[in-house]
């Protein structure tokens, strides 16, 4: 049985990344071109994906978001201003979430049911976020990075989709919660290499990414991987970025289209919502 994996794109400005947001001045957005590159690639492969969109982008580019949804892709929330949950109180997060939900509803005429936290900032420190998401009517979250990295992550968190218990959100209890968690892929069950996407996917060779997805799929588990549309647009490299941030920010951009092309050839991918629905129905995705 072929496992359906989750393909997701976090749609924010390229200069919203933690490493860049304080150092880039007068940036060019490149956002429409970047999205077009990705939409073309997905159309070529007949694949649908989930775009987690920042509310301020949905307000500024409603036609773009509507075009993505019109091509059959799912639109989820990526917060309103791309501030990580670490920097917000529960009340501030509720406001952020509400504003982003509204911005997406205004753009596409339907509310999002899925959420991804900027910087994967759902961790033991911000576990209050789960109740805020439940109260706001969200059905799933895809923010748990089940390995500790310098900036984020929860070591020991489950690596399969599971129901979030607000009292023990990083344990696979399938307790009282109403929210499903789709953790980001770690490509080796024991080593837990954090190679779900972004910088890691740009850094690592295609054969290793493939092996990681295959390993999860062999255990019947979907791999949830993520990219940013700007990572497929070499034009962002010409933007003014301080030298020491250039390397990590733009490494591997020229080769990422070819890499994703190879992954789309080799594996089945669909939207997060589809995988959540089929995994909670008890059926195979
Ligand atoms: Zn982001």
TrEMBL record:
<protein>
    <submittedName>
        <fullName>Polysaccharide deacetylase family protein</fullName>
    </submittedName>
</protein>
<feature type="domain" description="NodB homology">
    <location>
        <begin position="16"/>
        <end position="167"/>
    </location>
</feature>
<dbReference type="InterPro" id="IPR022560">
    <property type="entry name" value="DUF3473"/>
</dbReference>
<dbReference type="InterPro" id="IPR011330">
    <property type="entry name" value="Glyco_hydro/deAcase_b/a-brl"/>
</dbReference>
<dbReference type="Pfam" id="PF11959">
    <property type="entry name" value="DUF3473"/>
</dbReference>
<dbReference type="GO" id="GO:0016810">
    <property type="term" value="F:hydrolase activity, acting on carbon-nitrogen (but not peptide) bonds"/>
</dbReference>
<dbReference type="Pfam" id="PF01522">
    <property type="entry name" value="Polysacc_deac_1"/>
</dbReference>
<dbReference type="InterPro" id="IPR045235">
    <property type="entry name" value="PuuE_HpPgdA-like"/>
</dbReference>
<keyword id="KW-0614">Plasmid</keyword>
<dbReference type="InterPro" id="IPR002509">
    <property type="entry name" value="NODB_dom"/>
</dbReference>
<dbReference type="GO" id="GO:0005975">
    <property type="term" value="P:carbohydrate metabolic process"/>
</dbReference>
């Amino acid at each position: 049985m072929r496992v359906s994996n989750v393909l997701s794109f976090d749609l924010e400005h390229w200069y919203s990344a933690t490493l860049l947001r304080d150092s880039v001045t007068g940036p060019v957005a490149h956002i429409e071109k970047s999205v077009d590159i990705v939409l073309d690639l997905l159309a070529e492969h007949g694949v649908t994906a989930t775009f987690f969109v920042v509310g301020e982008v949905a307000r500024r580019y409603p036609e773009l978001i509507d075009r993505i949804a019109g091509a059959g892709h799912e639109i989820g929330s990526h917060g309103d201003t791309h501030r990580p949950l670490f920097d917000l109180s529960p009340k501030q997060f509720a406001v952020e979430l509400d504003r982003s939900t509204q911005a997406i509803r205004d753009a596409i005429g339907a509310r999002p049911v899925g959420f991804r936290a900027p910087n994967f900032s759902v961790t033991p420190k911000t576990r209050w976020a789960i109740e805020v998401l439940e109260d706001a009517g969200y059905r799933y979250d895809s923010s748990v990075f089940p390995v500790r990295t310098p900036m984020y992550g929860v070591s020991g968190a489950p690596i399969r989709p599971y129901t979030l218990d607000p009292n023990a959100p990083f344990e696979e209890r399938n307790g009282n919660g109403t929210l499903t968690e789709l953790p980001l892929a770690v490509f080796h069950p024991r080593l837990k290499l954090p190679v779900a996407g972004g910088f890691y996917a740009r850094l690592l060779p295609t054969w290793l990414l493939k092996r990681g997805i295959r390993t999860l799929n062999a255990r019947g588990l979907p791999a949830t991987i993520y990219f940013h549309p700007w990572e497929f647009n070499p034009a962002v490299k010409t933007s003014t970025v301080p030298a020491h941030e250039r390397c990590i920010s733009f490494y591997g951009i020229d080769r990422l289209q070819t890499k994703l092309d190879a992954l789309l050839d080799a594996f089945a991918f669909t939207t997060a919502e589809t995988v959540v629905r089929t995994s909670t129905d008890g059926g195979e995705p």
